Every structure is written in C-alpha cells, then in structure tokens.
Amino acid sequence: MATFVLVPGGWHGAWSYETVVPLLEQAGHTVHALTLTGLRPDDDRATVAGANLDTHAEDVLRVLDRAHVTNATLVGHSYGGMVIAAAADRADGRVARLVHLDAYVPQDGDSCWSVTTEGYRQAFAAGAACTGYAVEPPPGGDSRRRPHPLASFLQTIRLTGALAEVPRREFVYCSGWEDRTPFADLRNRLAADPDWRVHDLPTGHNAMREAPEAVAALLLDARGGEGEMPTTGVPLG
Length: 237
Prior knowledge:
The chain is an alpha/beta fold. Helix content is 32%, strand content 17%. The chain has one domain (3-228): Alpha/Beta hydrolase fold, catalytic domain (Rossmann fold). It has a seven-stranded parallel β-sheet. The chain has a two-stranded antiparallel ribbon with strand order 5-6. α3 crosses α4. 43% of the residues are buried.
C-alpha cells in the first residue's frame, strides 16, 4: 500500500483534499493531508511572517520522519508543487513518486514569484499590501482560505539534483481555465521530457473539488499511464 502526502496550494489547507482523502483511504492507502505552517487557524503573526518555502518543505519532511515513511507519494497542488520539489530533494530517497497537480515544477534557483505570470505577481504584491508579510486570498472562493506567507512565494528554491532520482514524476494539467492558467508552457515542456508523465484533466484549477474521483483515479493508477484522465460520471464545475 502507498503512503500519500497531500500538499495544498496557496491560501488553502488540508481541507482542500477533503473529498479525495476518503477515496484513497477506502482503497487501503495511508494519507496525510497537510495544512502548512502559517496557514493554520491558530498561527500567530510571527509564525505567519516567518514561514517560507524551507519551512513548508520541513512540514513535509516532518511527516516522513514521524510516520517512518520510506516510499512516499508527494502530491502538490499549485504552489504546493514548489513544496514537494523542495521536500523530495531533501528526503534522502524516501520519495517514490511526485504528482504536480496543476502545480509549479521548479528548477534550481526558481521561486514561485519568478515562475508565475506577471498577473499573479501583481496579485501577490497587492494582496500583501496590508501587512507586508501575508498575501490575502483572492476574491471569491472557499471561506476557509487564509492569508498566505509572502516569504514562501518569494524564496528561491535550492535543488541539489537529488530530485532527478525520484523514480516517478507526473504533471496534471487542468485545461478548463486555459484563458488564465500559468502552466500551459510548462505542460508542453514536460510533455516533451521522457522523464515525466503528463496527464490532461478538463477541469478548472481546483480539480480536487471539481473532480475528486478523477484525481483519486490518477493517484491510484499504479501504471502511471500518460494521457487524459478518466472523467466518466465525474461532475465538472
């Protein structure tokens, strides 16, 4: 059985996977859905201000240590792709699979700020204008979202090359918001890379909410086949 560590995107918590977790557990797998440091309801100002990408990578590594996991599947949504890359690079071979779920796939020296679009950089800056250290959630969306530590969007990732040793690396491209997605060029680049498997999912960015069955089906697919994910019977938002 697999051990899944699910990392949310910006402003979100473990709750963003709430409809996917039971589907994985019903299949007999162990699941850890995380709320990253600085996004927990009881985090104080100092905790939010001090949280960065390193902090969030350590959140993941702490789960691996505590649960004695040696063959983890790390799943990162959106900003969470930065986190799982940083964690896997430092995990000493304990990660067997990475799934970037409509998520950033950084190279050494990248940051979320540097690899996103100008529109998102402007949104980050505007969202942090009030405090200077936390980015307010964009308008609309789930009321459980919380201000996101700005430092984690800005910090440069440092990769040693160990990430390339992860046996299975996958990217899920959500095509239902192609007018706004920052991931179109990334999808094309990874599709041409033989070390990556690319899947297409016709949902908006929050695929876990819109198509939890399809997301779970991909995560449970031991074959890791390439192509469009199954969507039969899945309600798309």
